[in-house]
Design a protein that fits this description.
16 strands; mainly beta; seven-stranded antiparallel beta sheet; 261 residues
């Protein structure tokens, strides 16, 4: 099967790809979103126990996906979504944890832009959460709400390319991810450092990402096929495969990393 050129990721000529069978043992259909897997943390911190005012929270996976949009939506025509999966579930995106992404867009070792999740408005005032982005000294602006279904280990944050100074596909950036306790102590809880990706030019793409809807669906009590292709990218990044995100699953079963070797 030849991979068609679509979105920004052109597949290598006659790339055969390989197929996976995704099985849904639940009774309801499940939407599956896919991202380029750029970071992983296999370690889980021991829980301090209930009532210790120290929420355990460990990053597990980080992924990224880029979509072309009209310039009236993003002036860069780049919509970039970062997928974050944690080892533990989060009750609500507002508290007690905050996700921070540090973007080094010129790759000189110093963050050029910072993004963080935060409640919209003052403390406990709105119940809404957004992803605020800006240079380290500010100001910070949010274009999109945070995607989090409550009581879930999955979070997705969205930006326009121009928010981090990326105006065309093909630019390589470095990314660091952190999670903080934003309710009790303000302490850093977990991190994945040293990630690198090429915006709009992943090493691998898949049939869900390339579909008109940009995601796939696994039917209740049934299976669906996912095909993964190589794009021929030779950039030195931390991308290692495809990250699957599907919410409303049992604890620890809301994401899967497909490693390509």
């Amino acid at each position: 099967m030849r991979c068609r050129c679509s979105r920004f990721a052109a597949c290598a000529d006659n790339a055969p790809g390989f197929a996976l069978q995704l099985t849904n043992n639940g009774v309801n259909p499940v939407d599956v979103e896919t991202f380029a897997l750029i970071g992983e943390n296999p370690f889980v911190t021991a829980s301090p126990g209930a009532g210790q005012q120290a929420p355990p929270m460990d990053l597990r996976y980080v992924g990224v996906a880029t979509y072309g949009v009209p310039p009236t939506f993003c002036t860069s025509s780049l919509l970039i979504r970062f997928a974050i999966n944690t080892h533990q579930r989060i009750t609500h995106s507002n508290y007690p944890v905050e996700f921070d992404l540090l973007f080094d867009t010129n790759r000189d070792g110093t963050p050029d832009y910072i993004g963080f999740t935060s409640e919209v408005g003052t403390f406990a005032s709105s119940g809404q959460n957004a992803f605020f982005v800006g240079p380290p000294a500010g100001p910070f602006r949010a274009f999109f709400f945070t995607e989090h279904p409550t009581n879930s280990a999955n979070t997705i944050v969205t930006i326009c390319g121009e928010q981090i100074g990326v105006t065309s596909p093909g630019q390589q950036i470095n990314v660091d991810a952190y999670v903080y306790d934003n309710y009790f102590t303000g302490n850093e809880l977990s991190s994945i450092d040293g990630m690198s990706t090429v915006i709009g030019a992943p090493r691998y793409v898949d049939s869900f990402y390339l579909s008109p809807l940009g995601f796939g669906t696994a039917p209740g009590g049934g299976s669906t096929s996912l095909r993964i292709f190589t794009t021929g990218s030779t950039a030195t990044t931390t991308e290692s495969g495809i990250l699957l995100m599907f919410s409303y699953g049992p604890s620890g079963n809301e994401a899967r990393a497909i490693k390509v070797r």
